Fold these 2 entries.
Entry 1:
Amino acid sequence: MELWRPDRVYFEADARNTVIGRRVRDYCIKNNVEMLETTSHNQVRNLPGENEKAKYAAAKKTLIVGIKRSMKLEVCKPSADYQFSLMTNCPGSCEYCYLFTTQGKKPYVRVYGNLEELYDTIDKYIEKKLPHTTMFEAASTGDPLGVEHITGALKETIEHFGRLKQGKLRVVTKYAAVDPLLDINHNKNTRFRFSINTNYVIKNFEHNVDNLWDRLKAAEKMALAGYPLGFLIAPIILHENWKGQYKEMLEALHNHIGQQQNSFITFELIQHRFTMNAKNIIEERFPNTKLEMDPEKRLKKWGKYGRVKYVYEKNQAQEAKDYLTGLIKQYFPNGHIQYFT
Ligand code: SF4
């Protein structure tokens, strides 16, 4: 479990003096990381690299500290009511990453300094929906635990939700560095989810994230710290011996957390999908990818904004759904499957 270290950090002028900006600056000084300036976190140019593959690798080692300008929160179905960003993108390099579709051209990692403004916005959204509880997703534009050792923003956000009565938070990660989050006042208002997968998927497609065992150990620690837990099995990939490997994965999960009293565990099941745009980017950045992306073998589906995505054929998707549902019921009788998509 190695913590990410950027090669260079760009600061927007307004972000330098925020709490996050100062923390990142201290991190850079301590770790001898180059500090640069940018006029906008949306337009960082001249990153090193002669081809797309090298440029992508350089961007994944670049951190930008900016100010989030828009405070309009987007709807986030099916996992929550709204989503907000503590950061955009992620130090990881998963070959199938859903961000290729939305962030394809700007794969550098961005974090935002204006947390207080964000918390005010969240509080207002909650107020509008009273007396109902409002659920927020903090990880739909990146993996905030991947930069937590640099910003500390996730800890503060979990503590903010810990003080709220009608607001709940959901986070998902492929990282395991949860120690700074264990002894804080989360008040059970944050459901902490881990994205898990078979060893085949992790070994072949998930780079610069933590391995399954570290994620499972981290999940165990979070369960002991009293957090409500959840697991995303995503993307479900029907590789050779997928049944055997998904069974092993759920067995291992059961061995780590099955005995916890805290057993109202949620599961979200997401089958592998791709867009043609993402496929082109993936093939440029990972020319030897083993990811199966043949549109002829897939079912065409229309998503948000008229985007076409390719999912498994109906009978294959149904088989995966039935099989995984059966395993989850067997190993986690109190587990709750929220959706299969
Ligand atoms: Fe993308 Fe998540 Fe992998 Fe980061 S950890 S590269 S956000 S899939």
Entry 2:
Amino acid sequence: MTISAVRGTFLDFVDDPWKHVGDEQAAVRFFADGLLVVDDGIIVDFGAYDEIGSRHEGVDTTVITDRIIVPGFVDGHIHLPQTRVLGAYGEQLLPWLQKSVFPEERKYADREYAQEGTRHFFDNLLASGTTTFQAFTSSAPVCTEELFEEASRRNMRAIAGITAIDQNAPDWFTISPQDYYAAATEQIERYHRKGRNLYAITPRFAFGATTELLETCQRLKQENPDLWVHTHISENPAEIRGVLDLHPDCTDYLGMYEKFGLVGPKFTGGHGVWLSDDEFRRISESGAAVTFCPCSNLFLGSGLFRLGKATDPEHRVRLTFGTDMGGGNRFSMINVLEDAYKVGMLNNCMLDGSLIPSQQNLAESERNKLSPFRGFWSITQGGAEALYIDEFVGNFDIGKEADFVVLDWTAGPPAVAWHASLLAEQGGPQTVEQAGELLFSIMMVSDERAVDETWVMGRRAYRKA
Ligand code: GUN
Ligand code: ZN
């Protein structure tokens, strides 16, 4: 008998809150006293305790009080071998890669170092409430092997692949298209769809890829249409100029990935800070996704992602949110929401007509505002949909994998507890509005210290000391 249950206060999403402007609660599912029933890691029942409790009498039940339980967080863009160099001082993207990133990632060709770094990486993810991620590794096959081995041991859902680069990096860091093809082919066979592992063709970025390498990626996708494709796009102006110099036949950055047949469902481009309206439209029509990485975009000075444009209902772009750790200086998706909110507010101000009234766009301006429901949807079900893994994770629908996070709204910096007591005077949230207020408090006043427990496939994988 492997059935067990968790009783507590649950909140998840059944729709995209951006589709319900003015009535976002229509996208939310909330049970002040709920029950989640799990069989062998899979959700087999979920609902109000009053309604479904009698069906599960006698089931081994963990009762969690004074907490909000939400689906495990999805980090759509993170770099495993940058675990030790997050928060490096003083550079924009291209010099930062040369100075801080490539020398550190080089160490992950050594298995022992890769194992040590990988352990730190997974410990940090679980302590941050992240149960699903799409990651870059390094150009050494060892790094990707260690990622999938550790993900399997921890039973976490991971999307990753060798991170290929064959130009604009030191010789000791590049991989040839031939070696990349051979190693990726072997790894696809060994890891793809084994347990919870999914494989991604991962050209690091267009600036670091020769035509031959991109043709190799195209070949891999043609030979394995089920694979994911993960890369960077339009992050930094110097990078974009470099890409357009390398590919003068392309009018924009996206066109370069389109040229090699990589853009479509299961393609994710990280950052997209400088995407044009037309690129957003083409991404939307293709079914591809973009990752909003606000911690990194601010930390590396890359720019302000146009959230209100990406969420335009006319050309809605699938979005994941990501830490981009170590370009992002945090592991926590809660910090990502904090910075995303601030970026949204800056865009909101620019478009509200206060500076140039003729450029006022109130609908786009409003879509930049990251309400708690928009935010938590984006790092759970929204992220899962963008990555085409919502059949597995994202919310508490029956049949999905039971990954969830137990949030303590009183935990965090010293200011949090008294602040939150204003919002939760009668103990825990009784209504969706109260739950939303507490979630907003968590994203703006707290951080990963709000993560009390992280559960993976129905088992507790992390508990705060
Ligand atoms: N573009 C190419 N490589 C990287 C990386 O490691 N981090 C970020 N933020 N952008 C990149
Ligand atoms: Zn990145």
